[in-house]
Amino acid sequence: MRIRAWRKADTAVLRKLHQTIHPGQPFPLTRHVWLVEEAGRGVGYTAVIPVPGLEGIYNLDGGILSNYRRQGLGSRLLQHVLHEAPGLNIRQLSHSFTDLNSPAAHFLRRHNFFIEHEEWLMTLSPLLPCSPAHLPDCQIQTHPTPIHLFRRLYDQSFGGTPWYQPYSQEEVENTLDDPGDILFLYQDEQPIGFAWLQEDLIEPIGIVREEWGKGYGRFLFLAALHELQNRGKTQANIGVWRSNQAAIRLYQSVGFQHQQTITYLAFDVQ
């Protein structure tokens, strides 16, 4: 058995491995990939993918073909990655699970991965008619070129919180389908909040820190739901950190219910 860094010529082999181990999931695009070979045949891989906006934190992806499991290959592969990680400025490895009883979750827990945080997916279904109550001097508007404003408001809303994960210019450009998908809340003609509508998902949504606790969050949230209804959506989804109890209470107050828990396991490299 040997472990080596992938080469461009390995792309087809890696794609086939990935589809066999994780059918239906998108192939990870990253330059940090290692291939496990047994008798000259690729039998497993691992990849580390940088988390946008969080320097030094990488998502861990990969696996071993079922016929080659329980032979220590996964452990040796993980140890190889941990050995290489400091040289790549990797501070933390992370992987998300919807089932902590899965074999992969048990494998990482045995190798000292810990629960870093949990996120809830919450759903409102059916999406009933709703509109925000009037707030003096408040308006919901869109912006023809929203990226700079969105990124500034995001930083002012979430900087210093555990769930802060800033967006790069490129990330927003690659994700935003329509400038009208980002709603902005203005108070006295000053932008103080935003809500990004991605199909039936509201993600992210925020109010600048100086305006917390004044009812603006609820106003913006109801306006976002109203816009989804105008677009013909029959349900709404939102993600939230489980520790963000203030946001969870807001979402529950308008009928959102917990649908799924996503648990992030992590390992601190440095």
Tally the helices.
Answer: 7
Query: What is the residue-mean pLDDT, rounded to a whole number?
Result: 95
Low-confidence spans = none
Q: CATH first level of the largest domain: which class?
A: Alpha Beta
If strands are numbered along the chain, what order do they take across the biggest sheet?
A: 1-2-3-4-5-12-6-11-10-9-8-7
What is the CATH architecture assignment of the largest domain? 3-Layer(aba) Sandwich
**Order of helical and strand elements:** EHEEEHEHEEHHEEEHEHE
The main pleated sheet reads as:
12 strands, mixed
Radius of gyration: 22 Å
The CATH topology of the largest domain is given as: Aminopeptidase
Protein model, in words:
This protein is α+β, with helices and mostly antiparallel strands and 270 residues long. It folds into 2 domains: 2-90, Gcn5-related N-acetyltransferase (GNAT) (Aminopeptidase), CATH 3.40.630; 126-234, Aminopeptidase. 27% of the residues lie in helices and 33% in strands. The chain is built from 7 helices and 12 strands. The chain has a 12-stranded mixed sheet, sandwiched between helices. The radius of gyration is 22 Å and the shape is elongated. The model has no long low-confidence stretch (mean pLDDT 95).
Question: How are the secondary structure elements laid out?
Answer:
Layout (H helix, E strand, L loop, with lengths): L1 E4 L5 H11 L11 E6 L2 E10 L6 E8 L8 H12 L7 E6 L5 H8 L3 E11 L13 E4 L5 H12 L10 H7 L6 E6 L2 E9 L2 E7 L8 H15 L5 E6 L3 H9 L3 E12 L2
Parallel strand pairs: 4-5, 10-11
Antiparallel strand pairs: 1-2, 2-3, 3-4, 5-12, 6-11, 6-12, 7-8, 8-9, 9-10
